[in-house]
Amino acid sequence: MVCIGDNADNLKWTKVGGLDVKYMHSNNGHVYVENSEEGLRLIFNNVKQGDQGDWKCTLKEDENVGGKSFNLEVYCELS
């Protein structure tokens, strides 16, 4: 999933009701973000039941302005 913006450094991915998703170097690698040409990419490795829920991309400075979200449904874990 890619969040498109003028500058990926100004964007963040959040699991609604949870924490901001971090870059690979500061995470265990299960769910992380990375900059791409298109914007800020949200990456899932080995999707788990706990990943299910609403995910949102917003501006770091003001998460109440705009943003896009999606609901991830997990029917079975991939490994």
Low-confidence stretches: none
Mean pLDDT across all residues, rounded? 84
Strand fraction? 35-45%
State the share of residues found in helices, binned by percent: under 10%
> How many DSSP-defined strands?
6
Distance linking N and C termini: 19 Å
Q: What is the 3D shape? A: globular
Count, helices:
0
Rg computed from alpha carbons, rounded to a whole number of angstroms: 12 Å
The spatial strand order of the largest sheet comes to 1-4-3
**Major beta sheet summary:** 3 strands, antiparallel
Order of helices and strands: EEEEEE
Given helix and strand content, the structural type is mainly beta
Protein architecture, described:
The protein has 79 residues and is mainly β. The chain has no helices and 6 strands. The strands form 2 sheets. A 3-stranded antiparallel β-sheet has the order 1-4-3, with no helix packed on it. A 3-stranded antiparallel β-sheet has the order 2-5-6, with no helix packed on it. A hairpin with an 8-residue loop joins strand 5 and strand 6 (68-72). The protein is globular, with a radius of gyration of 12 Å. The mean pLDDT is 84.
Secondary structure elements and pairings:
Blueprint: E1 2-3, E2 11-15, E3 31-35, E4 40-44, E5 53-59, E6 68-72
Antiparallel strand pairs: 1-4, 2-5, 3-4, 5-6
Which structural traits does this protein have?
single chain; 79 residues; mainly beta; 3-stranded antiparallel β-sheet
